[in-house]
Amino acid sequence: MQNSKHNVIPIAPIEDVRRVRRMAITIGERRILILALEDTIVALDPTCPHWHVPSLEQGTCQQDSITCPNHGWTFSLRSGKALRGSGRIRLYSVLIADGMLCIELPDETPRWMQY
Ligand code: FES
């Protein structure tokens, strides 16, 4: 049986996120890039799988994809899969509660410490 816990973190009013369209935040040790697309909002780890650097913070968005400025690897913002290059980016679940954008982060506490 799998035991997975998630933490729901309120980020900002949804209208502010839609207005600025792109914001990078830090939660604990994580850097998270939030992008307001035409029809949805996505949250992702901006680490490019090529050199494992957070270069996607400066990535170029085109519709449903983001391209790393370093060497052009491109990733789907829907699935996280590479469209050019290889690997995938990590996407986080987002939800809206009481007008606030929230991100659902997995609890990455080692299993042996969860009990
Ligand atoms: S570091 Fe992102 S494509 Fe090379």
Q: Which features would summarize this protein structure in a list?
A:
mainly beta, four-stranded antiparallel β-sheet, single chain, 1 helix, binds FE2/S2 (inorganic) cluster, Rieske Iron-sulfur Protein, globular, 115 residues
Task: Summarize the structure in words.
It is a single chain. It is built from 1 helix and 10 strands; from the N terminus they run βαβββββββββ. It is mainly beta and 115 residues long. A 6-stranded antiparallel β-sheet has the order 1-10-9-4-3-2. A 4-stranded antiparallel β-sheet has the order 5-6-7-8, with no helix packed on it. It has a single domain (6-113), classed as Rieske [2Fe-2S] iron-sulphur domain (Rieske Iron-sulfur Protein, 3-layer Sandwich). The longest helix is centred in the first third of the chain and has 7 residues, at 14-20. The protein binds FE2/S2 (inorganic) cluster. Residues 48, 50-51, 53, 55, 68, 70-73, 85 line the site of FE2/S2 (inorganic) cluster. FE2/S2 (inorganic) cluster binds next to loops.
